[in-house]
Amino acid sequence: MNRKITSLIISTLIPITLNNSALTANSQTNGNCFIQGNNGELVNLSNLCGGSNSRVRKNSRTFKVKIKRRLGGIPIIDVTFNKQKTYQMLVDTGASSTVLTLPMAQELGLQPEGYVLVETPSNKAIPFPVTTVNSIKVGTAELKTTQVTVSPTLTMGLLGQDFLGKYDLTIRKDTIQFQRR
């Protein structure tokens, strides 16, 4: 079934001319949006169609994850470490690195490899253990072999800029959209 493409100036199934070849715009029920030329070649227009019927493909540079809940307005999402354990973590755009709680590090069998001085809100530099995880996975994106900080005092982990810094984020009511930079 064809639908009107509201994001485009053209109407559905109206032939248009582009570089001297007639094209037809279609919006399909499966969420794909494209222009089809006379030779049958499809040009993907998904980024223009928008709306609730637009789908993000798994191999796309964009993906969405569900916000599980919020703490003080900060989104909490599922994050998987070392392809074995998933934790709910705060999306902390102000944290320079990902921070695990001590119980998380222990469950993952991680050992301290050193210490880093962390500036706290009270401006004191406190030594926190650092360790390496094999992977951090959010949605369809995975960051491999990265150093994380372990906090002996936090009760929830923080997903920081070591992961988030590779994406432009759009935080909505129930989801976060990650767009690869």
In brief, what are we looking at here?
The protein has 181 residues and is mainly beta. Helices cover 8% and strands 49% of the residues. Strands 6, 7, 8, 9, 10, 11, 12 and 13 form an 8-stranded mixed beta sheet that branches. A 4-stranded antiparallel beta sheet has the order 1-2-3-4. It has a 3-stranded antiparallel beta sheet with strand order 5-15-14, with no helix packed on it.
The succession of helices and strands, N to C, reads EEEEHEEEEEHEEEEHEE
Q: In the residues, how many domains can be counted?
A: 2
Low-confidence stretches: 1-31, 50-59
> What is the fold named in CATH at topology level of the largest domain?
Cathepsin D, subunit A, domain 1
Mean pLDDT across all residues, rounded?
A: 77
- The gross shape turns out to be globular
How many beta strands in the DSSP annotation?
Answer: 15
Quick one: CATH superfamily of the largest domain?
Answer: Acid Proteases
What portion of residues belong to β-strands?
over 45%
**Largest sheet descriptor:** 8 strands, mixed
**End-to-end span in angstroms?**
34 Å
What CATH architecture of the largest domain would you give? Answer: Beta Barrel
Structural class category: mainly beta
Number of helices: 3
Radius of gyration: 22 Å
Helix content: under 10%
Question: What would CATH call the class of the largest domain?
Answer: Mainly Beta
